[in-house]
Write a structure and sequence with these properties.
- This protein is mainly alpha-helical.
- It has 2 domains: 110 residues, Arc Repressor Mutant, subunit A, CATH 1.10.10; 41 residues.
- The protein has 7 helices and 2 strands.
- It has a two-stranded antiparallel sheet with strand order 1-2.
- A hairpin with a 2-residue loop joins strand 1 and strand 2.
- Helix 2 crosses helix 3.
- The longest helix has 29 residues.
- The chain starts with a helix and ends in a 6-residue tail after the last helix.
Length: 158
């Protein structure tokens, strides 16, 4: 994250999107992972947070730059690995599309994947807020999810 912040100040959501793009969808961190990590960087004085409209904007500090410089090799290696895995995933998807004869529907499928990915992240964020809720609230949420699974259709409903 420090490496991404060194490139430019970012919102948490921009970090999620950047890692998604660099890995071609292979690694999409959840908000429940990104925001606590950003808070930790702030606690360590590696990043500062400012306000950009109604959202938080994170920037790397001089102390964070020093830390990144000392740890540049692992940071570069990790981002390069994301890129390599993302390239492989793109090749595999292309081969699968080719084998199934669905090259023409790729744009439509991609749009659907993007919408589903966004919905999944939103759902994950909502569920993370419920982990410490009272038992009856957790039961209510579980019932909603069970109804959703039944409507979507999946292994549990067959």
């Amino acid at each position: 994250m420090l490496k991404l912040l060194a490139e430019k100040p970012r919102h948490g959501y921009e970090i999620i999107k950047e890692l998604d793009e660099r890995s071609n969808g292979f690694y999409v961190p959840s908000p429940g992972m990104v925001y606590p990590a950003l808070n930790r960087l702030e606690e360590l004085r590696h990043a500062t947070v400012g306000v950009d409209g109604s959202r938080k904007l994170y920037s790397i500090t001089d102390f964070g730059k020093e830390h990144l410089t000392e740890n540049m090799a692992p940071a570069n290696a990790l981002l390069e690995q994301f890129g390599r895995v993302g390239e492989r995933m793109a090749r595999v998807r292309a081969m699968l599309d080719e084998e199934s004869g669905e090259q023409g529907s790729r744009v439509t499928q991609h749009g659907g994947r993007t919408e589903l990915k966004h919905a999944l992240h939103t759902l994950q964020s909502a569920l993370e807020c419920k982990w410490s809720a009272p038992a009856e609230e957790q039961q209510r949420v579980a019932a909603i999810l069970q109804r959703a699974v039944a409507q979507i259709g999946g292994p549990e409903t067959e």
